[in-house]
Amino acid sequence: MVEQVEDKRRRLFLTAAATTITGVGAAYVAVPFLASMNPSDRAKAAGAPVEADISKLEEGQLIRVEWRGKPVWVLKRTQTVIAQLEGMTDKLRDPDSNESEQPESCKNITRSIKPEIFLAVGICTHLGCSPTFRPDVAPEDLGPDWKGGFFCPCHGSRFDYSGRVYSSVPAPLNLVVPPHQYLTDSRILIGSDGGQA
Asked: Is the pTM value of this prediction over 0.70?
């Protein structure tokens, strides 16, 4: 009888030990398996907002920031450029940006939160080429009416300093203005509008 009680204790101990070891082993297998289902840091970063420091941005200067694998232009416009935007409307396909993508806070003639700072995804709305920044006025290749802006060398689409597309060019829409917000006067968060949309 003492032997039967002893055997029963051993069996309970061995059963408990085997169950514990099996549970620990299953956890060691399950944790990496479940962790592999989460998106990678690279995938998270691909859609995450990015910050742009504009503290050293000078008038007329354009910098590029990558967001979601796309170039985003940040341009500091001069007062002269801002003043000429009003006179461009008769040359543009969508001067009021009714058909184009931009945050509500940018539905104005400058297509920006602050008139002097313009942001746009640097991809042509025609076939996805990257336009070039052409601040030169009336160059030979663009003609005497060119007042500066963005020119797509792939198929000749033209955009003014607000990214608004000219009439009679292949691009159907204005350049996309990404959601963004100012964190400070010198830092912009691209990819988040702070819930203002």
From this structure: yes
